[in-house]
User: Fold Major facilitator superfamily (MFS) profile domain-containing protein from Salarias fasciatus.
Amino acid sequence: MDTGKQLTGTLAVAVFTAALGSLQYGYSLGVINAPQKVIERHYARSLGVFSERAADLSFNSTEPPEEEQHPSVVVYWSLSVAIFSIGGMLSSFMVGFVGDLKGRIKGMMMINVLAVAAGLLMLLCRMWKPYIMVISGRAVMGFYCGLTCGLVPMYIGEIAPKAYRGALGTLHQLAIVAGILLSQVIGLDFVLGNEDRWPLLLGLSGAPAVLQCLLLPFCPESPRYLYIILGKEEEARKSLSRLKGPYDATPDIEEMRREKEEADKEPRVSILSLICSTVYRRQLFVALMMHLSQQLSGINAIFYYSTSIFERAGVSQPVYATIGVGVINTIFTLVSVALVDRAGRRTLTLAGLGGMCICAIAMTVGLKLLNTYSWMSYVSMAAIFLFVSFFEIGPGPIPWFIVAELFSQGPRPAAIAIAGCCNWTSNFIIAMTFPYIQAWMDSYVFILFAVLLLGFTIFIYLRVPETKGKTFEEIAAEFQKGRRTHKDINELQQLKASTDA
Assistant:
């Protein structure tokens, strides 16, 4: 019986193990928000600008104490948040190098050293200057997450059977939102987000790396890496039979052989060559636009704004409503896992972006008329929950794994690195500029996102092909259709000559 299309226990363990890296990324994204005030007080004490009397006076006041607004505390706090993105931007360029150096499995194993080191720096931060220890830990963790955000989708994309590639690829995003939700729950004041336990809360971000190290030796290496990069056909066959059970691996080996022949014809493309190349320009432009549509959709603004909207709507504990948004986030990522291989990547991305555009307009109307009609607060709340739902159906998970589908083996690592850097950079820019844009545009800020979302929807409708159920070969051919000119072939030969040299 052909079990090549069935999900096996080994495949499940391999995908789960890889996704622990994504869980760690989600946890690190969310963990810093809950204990902000507690950490700022520790920074102020360490910097010598903390006054116990001011803290007591401010306990019953809505205004933050003076030392929490002290320029040094503000700078160090902002740096604690932003340094994470800077670490990710720097390391995202190294994804291809780390993935090819010793393989996907050993690559993930090696970088776990960074995650454990980062966790220890934050766990032990009270032993020295907390602000320096936390900022160092966040920088190292960001560097780790930049690598894991490339390696996890790359590995899952390469081991997943064609029929389940979308669903398994979406698990990267599911693990991220589960990590964010986990950090929100254990970051509550009565759990770990308090004066005594906050270093443990931050230090736990390194815990999934320890579990991943224990499980990685049981995971098969990517058959595509073994066959296409190393040329080890027998090992690739063994890996395939471990992943898919006892079945005739010949069709899969045949597909990889054709891809290897193509990869041998095309050079091992460096990041710079890929940026300059006209041959891959369409795929690269699509990959970058997919990642930009994720970050510039306004999703981070929603998380930023949600607590204040819930407060205005009369929710007595807005932090629980924000956790509610995290739960919706997770549920609708599961919906995407179920739908992505049936409805297709293009359809779900279009539905998600279009729905978010309508929700952004509804949110603007709700916020603008909040003082006139009290029931408009419920319109705003509903719009927030729907906005998050539409994001997780398509624009959230799909950009992470579609890049691996759009490129053949030669340019794939470089493309994942460039797309990852684009994602981290736009994330950093949004984080730094959103407060100023919000102050300038007030409630109309979501109209800006609605316009961007409309633009991305039109672009994806016109330019992005459906990749569901297609081989990597067929997807690459879709882009080259009718445009592989004599000039392109010459360029490929020149690239190959420069790589062979």
